[in-house]
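User: I'm putting together a teaching handout on how multi-component assemblies are represented. Below are the sequence lines for each component of a complex, exactly as they appear in our records. Could you produce the 3D structure of the whole assembly as structure tokens, so the students can see both representations side by side? Please keep the chain order the same as the input.
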Amino acid sequence: MKKLLKITNFNYQNIFHNFSLELQEGNITMISGNNKCGKTTLIKAIGQIIPTIDTIEYTFGDPFIKQENIGISLSLADDYGNQTVLNVLQNDEDEKVTIAKCHKAASFCLITDILENKVNELNAWDKLRVWLAKELLLKPKLLLLDDPCLFLTHDESRAFLQLLLKVHQKLKCTIVMTTSSLCDTTIADYLYILNKGKIVLEGDPVAVYKEEHILNRLGLKIPFMVDLSLKLQFYNLIDEIDLDIESMVDDLWPLD
Amino acid sequence: MAIGLKNFSCQCEDVKIYKENIVIPLHKVIGIIGPAKSLLLKTLNGQIDYSGSIYYKGQRQSKKDTLLYAETGYVGNDFQYPDFIQTVEEYFCYLWQRTGKTLQTRDKKMKEALKIVGLTPEYFKRNITGLSFSEKKLVQLAGCMLLNPSIILLDNVLVGFDKLVQKRLAKLFKLLIEKYHKTVIIGTSDSDYIYQYTDYCIILTDEKVSQGETQKVFEDVSFLIKHNIDVPEIVCFTYLVREKKHIKLGYHKDVRDLMKDIYKHVDLKIKE
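Assistant: Of course. Below is the structure of the complete assembly, with chains in the same order as your input.
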């Protein structure tokens, strides 16, 4: 797999000291960790929102010149002003997007019923979908999301992650997302766990979840179904991790 | 001892509570879920007008300058403070000044308030804008502790805290209730947190209010599903086993207890 960006010896305030990381093109990479581990700072660095002084090398060029290469959603900073959803989708810096394209993107993100609503009056769940629809139109190579599920209910989070997967498949872009909840990381191709600005665990999410003691020490809650699966596996009641409640119940009581 | 809301209605934008009777017991950790949770918390703090009656400490409260408003401390989702405030210390001094209390105990109380939420005195010199999301929430909570209210209203405050902080706060709330006889009312959409850490729960849906001991309220899974309330996965698992397999697993809070229960009910011969 091709490399999308490389961070080498990144230093920032008291959090990061000689931090290095590589992101692979086309992956969904998630970064999780306890409070104050540096995940938001890291995603700001990747999005060039904080100074990185030549420590990040982008294989697709200079993100300052081609702004459309990076789509950034910092969950606490999104502000579209007093515009309607349709206006937000239509207005691009260079050209006006056709209404037909806006409707197509809106339909993909299931927001056709709120196109005439003002963005600043929407709830967190609607705003996120508007942002995704906007990114669908801009077609960035890299999507950055900072804890997008923070203000969503569990059901909304699950629906958002499924939508994000669909957008990923459609745009064939790279996604980097931070999250404070490991429950959001089940769709990731690769997962990093940070603690005090250092990578303490990385790899396939399921492999990371198995490091239960480290995750517990860091204050990270393993997704319930993973936790239960690992315990049932220990007693030889199931063979592998199962994230679906119904299929696990059928597996445990096949004859009923 | 309870706060009683009779024939109670209030509305903000498209969210409303209409002619409901709600009982909020005192000296407990109370969880509130549902679209109208913020509305109820703000009303208890006097920020939103209502119709109907509110009873507190045996008295019907008037709509202005009530005892209830005076005894509640509200921590909301937005951290609001005047423009001239820069550091955490300035914010605390500002809060203290508004209480009208003597300066003699101020510094001690300010340190205690920070300590109780797990922050060190070094935070006094920190600029509020430079704090992380979770640090801001803890500073807000400490500010509320400084004012020493009898009823602490937490409106979506627990969002974004890791498990260690959540557990520490749950212990703090328990301590506040057992030692200082406070009441903590938590509004959140995190039904897992409510299920794990609260004694009493109120679910405010568009049509109906469900209230009672948390365990009992969450065992009514069909009600939760019908009203689009997130069902904690540990509850969902038991519910599915009961419904689909007719096996009476118990409703547990700890996955280890659920595990033991599963082990008892699984036919090991079939598994082999």
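A couple of points students might notice: Chain A has a mean pLDDT of 88. The longest strand of chain A covers residues 3-12.
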